[in-house]
Amino acid sequence: MRDKNIILIGFMGTGKTVTGRVLAERTGMKLIDMDSLIETEQKKTIPEIFAQDGEPAFRQMERELVRKLSKRSGLIISTGGGIVLNPDNVADFEKSGLVVCLTASPETIFKRVEKDTSRPLLSGDKKTQIYTLLEKRKPLYEAISHRINTDGLTDKQTANRILELYALESRD
Ligand code: S3P
Fold it and tell me: For 1, which DSSP code?
């Protein structure tokens, strides 16, 4: 029951990190937050990595980490919002467990990230950046079969829905 990974995918501000924490508490499974792990390994923050090494280098770091994590089991993995940009990432994760895409309206996303300064891709006019990036990535998130709209849901409610899916999938 607890050996498949649970992988949370979704745009920035859709609640991957908080939901991951609730899931880890509820299941006792180990939580891996990919952004935090990359920051620890690189000894730099995400904005520093983007500024000093560039986005392509960051995507490469993500790719390497996906390769490693998808070989492990029993993990709750919260990914960075851009993980869908490389289809190999999604394919690897699909093989290693239950992949769930969290979604939210641009308005909800804006409210959640309004005061945040840690996301280099939202460092200018946040509203415009959210709309533009979300529109561009929409087909990539929509390609994931399990999607949960988190508008109006608490973290616990989102986690409960994921656990229901996980129980169903583990029965097969
Ligand atoms: C990114 C999302 C961020 C982080 C980086 C790039 C993206 O993660 O990986 O700033 O491209 O959407 P969160 O989704 O956890 O904010």
Answer: -
